[in-house]
Write the structure tokens for this entry.
Amino acid sequence: MVRTPLTPEERERGERFGRLLRAARGGRSMTEVAASAGISAETLRKIETGRAPTPAFFTVAALARALGLSMDELAERCAPAGV
């Protein structure tokens, strides 16, 4: 299966999401947050650095729960400017 290339907007949204996760993580280690969310630290690292800009819904939901963020807040803060 060949993946459709991401648009610049999708890549930017992934970068915004990664910045939001890093900020929400604060002083907690990447390993601690990843374990709390039930994902690998490598997956979290890829998401935070924008190398995995379109994580699966359940990964996003698990990270939101682990970091005390609502899905509404994530959607709002990761939306493109002016939306």
Notes: DSSP finds five helices and no strands in the chain. Helices lie at 8-25, 30-37, 41-48, 57-67, 71-78.
